[in-house]
Amino acid sequence: MSILVVDIGTSGLRAGVVRNDGSLNFLNYEACRPSTPAPGLVEFDAQQMADAVLRVCNQTIEQSKITDTIDAVGITNQRASTVIWSKSTGKPFGPAIGWQDLRTVGECMAAAAEHGIKLAPNQTATKAAWMLQNYIFANKIDLADVRIGTVDSYIAAVLSKNKLHVTDSSNAAVTGLCNIDALSWSPRLCELLKVEIETLPKIVASSGVIGNATALPGAPPIAALIGDQQSSLVGQACITSGATKITFGTGGMLNTFTGQDAPTKFVRSEHGVYPIVAFRDSVATYWASEAIMLSAGTNLDWLCQDLQLISSPSESHELASQVPDSGGVVFVPALFGLGTPHWDYGARGTLLGITRGTNRAHIVRSVLEGIAHRGADMVDSVVGETKLDIKSIRIDGGMSRNPSFVQALANATGRKIEVSPITEATTLGAAFLAGAEVSFWHSLEQATTTWKPAQIIEPTELLNRAQWHEAVSRARNWIPALSSLDF
């Protein structure tokens, strides 16, 4: 017995089975990278994604059939990326638009100026409007044949042979198009943005049987849909008030579980954090607070590919370990600007404190510590916003495997760090939600008891946060025109 999970990320997708003990088995992966046809544009081939999803699912089912039966399917996905496809054929009408795409910056600014609607270009709303205008209205395609949705919607359609058109509340809440309860679409917002509400999916619970994956052997029930960051939150058993995880991948995403108290609006707070739906079941909607780091692992790629100070991201640990500290060097990882709490798109990466005695080990260590300081910034912001006591932090993502970084994070935050046993905990979250729905586990609480940290790291000595804040002040407002943007 097991749960099949389909996990669609930004640069690739995978399928695996999660067993009753919480172990992940028979994992199959395919790269599915977006393209950048022009600066600021990020697109991907949705049909290629669909074909890859079916391949990895079938590979996993074939490999597991001797020892496992599939009780249910869970889907977790990159959020806000947008697909438009035909109701009758299931084929996309054009390239899908990735969440990083910036083609609708002007539309976001116009919505704020003309209607007082605050949207960010990484949300679905203006992407959907652009696709309808350029793929559908421009080609006079009948709206009755049009479906538009986020990646979870599209993959549910693919697995059900185009029978389902649904999304869950965790994905709907970050589109910029739904009501504050995340249960229904906002007619006013859809009308103002010229997004035809009949083309949008039905909003369902994150945990609940919505139909069958008839495109797969045995047609197992699809029992969970959830956005990737929320799935990582659940996957690391953060389902009690104040429980916090950070995913350190290309960027960094912190989520703190806040419970059933709903926000009054979907906007960024004075502390630079956002309210999001953690997940919804048949009983209630559960909420979380989200903080964002625009670049995390990207900084290690920069050290490898551009500066060539190290040959691989993993070498950063070996090199950083050669020195007891950064020798007074401070790096602000603002290669794309600063997210929470500053939201300064004009900030830029800054390296300070260099002396004649500085060597590459000091610089590499300062980069790891700079990313750790940004993690502490996010924790401080969420604590300021929620007033919750965050005693420990659970982490996943590629950087969670770097011992020097994990220790620096403990030292920057002054909290113990619990490292996920699985690098990408998104897979576990979707499995826990689906399994609890089909009685694979008696409840979500029972499912999450299977999560155990691979290791626990305690702070050894605190990093200099005052010096860090001074360094951030030097990095900010480097490109004033970009610093003035506010989404």
Number of helices: 15
Could you say what the CATH architecture of the largest domain is?
2-Layer Sandwich
- Taken together, the total number of domains comes to 2
Topology-level CATH name of the largest domain: Nucleotidyltransferase, domain 5
Q: Decide which structural class fits the backbone.
A: alpha/beta
Rg, Cα atoms, Å: 22 Å
**Strand order, largest beta sheet:** 15-16-14-13-19-20-21
Mean pLDDT: 96
3D structure, described in words:
The chain is α/β, with parallel strands linked by helices and 487 residues long. It has 15 helices and 21 strands. The strands form six sheets. A seven-stranded mixed beta sheet has the order 15-16-14-13-19-20-21. A six-stranded mixed beta sheet has the order 3-2-1-5-12-11, with helices on both faces. A two-stranded antiparallel sheet has the order 4-7. α10 packs across α11 (403-413). The protein is globular and about 65 Å long. The termini are far apart. The mean pLDDT is 96.
Quick synopsis:
With 487 residues, the protein is an alpha/beta fold. 32% of the residues lie in helices and 23% in strands.
